[in-house]
């Protein structure tokens, strides 16, 4: 999918291009607009575009000037020039800037889509060449790395069988040579953003780029072999091997290599990383312990103090211990559920926000705690939603019960971003619960009203409804009045009084009979209620009816 920018100071032309372009057929996902050249340049510097349509004559920054800047700053950017002047100077600049096509105003559908198709064909050909180049490299280097990866994983998972793999031990440096081995784990904290913006959602291409960076600068003395972790797409495992030397040297080189890789990934692709490194071992078959230490160091990185990529070694003084003071969400969920159930989403949010603020003001809050909290929060909300028959439809229809199913990015490289992910989760569930219960409440209120309309002559108590629908008296009274403008008792009285007027219109009915028909056992009590409601007694009301003798 492609992203296009239209730069033109004339709104009618921008609108025409938007309407005439066959964007869907060309695979264009997003079309943005800029009202002048300066704004367009700022957008180009801020966002990545595949194709730009630019008017040559604009205020502030002309199309010709923009082409010159684009030629230097965005050499791979494709451009289509639009002009109302068949001027050779514009054409010469367009040729110099290697634009895809040159269109004259007024733009027509055929010429526009022909130019757009030409640009898209160039983009597709370029991507195909890049993909073929990468695929060739992957194919050529696939067999050996995959075998090494499989062996390293089996050692880390403690399932490696020495006898059956003896012939391959030299491949991974476990042939008795004096070496030291350590394990590092690198986590991409903004994976989904980078994969979408820099790798066009291509997972394999992203993995290829990351492992290439992590394996760079290896030599005969110190080597790094990395691969994507099967336990999570955000994490990469690196096996560091140093031939000869001391364990302290291996530890220093491993840390230096990881920090350099993290810095390079940030510089090249904008990837923000967190990493942990375990202790070095002289026996490769013991690196499972180094992996566990690396994972523990990664999990204990303090999210509250994290500003950029951070790599920590096992045993580092900056590695935070497991927090015993940070409270769990579990204890607050009954209050949150109660507020959501009563329709008070804002109160539920304030309870949740107050709880999150306690983490924010804590001494530290680790990555591991953040991961566990996200999983716990979704599980707890799923339980509440299931009990209320309000599970989000995307969760019901998916095997995945996590963030991906909810359509929420799990990227977070700071506590503020982590809080943002939590709020998005809360919003999805709160919204679905509110929608579901809102429909249920309408049905409940309609049922109560219908019951009163048909049983107004009975002794109606509010407890009948609170017990049946599991709602508090105060909340039910508030809902009913909000819906119909009357409290429940007021509505019962209204229905009885409306019926009383209708029955009093029949001269064949005695007031005593009407009183009993309305559920009043005492004629005097009925007369008093009627007078309070209409400012006259039942008898006086009858005398006011037409055709009744005074």
UniProtKB/TrEMBL annotation:
PANTHER family: ARAC-FAMILY TRANSCRIPTIONAL REGULATOR, TRANSCRIPTIONAL REGULATORY PROTEIN. It holds the Pfam family Response_reg. GO terms for biological process: phosphorelay signal transduction system. The modification 4-aspartylphosphate is found at residue 55. Coiled coil: none annotated. Residues 3-120 form the Response regulatory domain. Keywords: DNA-binding, Phosphoprotein, Transcription, Transcription regulation. Residues 446-544 form the HTH araC/xylS-type domain. SMART domains: HTH_ARAC, REC. It comes from Paenibacillus borealis. Signal peptide: none annotated. The keyword Transcription regulation applies. This is Chemotaxis protein CheY. One of its GO terms (molecular function) is DNA-binding transcription factor activity. InterPro entries: CheY-like_superfamily (IPR011006), Homeodomain-like_sf (IPR009057), HTH_AraC (IPR018060), HTH_AraC-typ_CS (IPR018062), Sig_transdc_resp-reg_receiver (IPR001789), Tscrpt_reg_AraC-type_HTH (IPR020449).
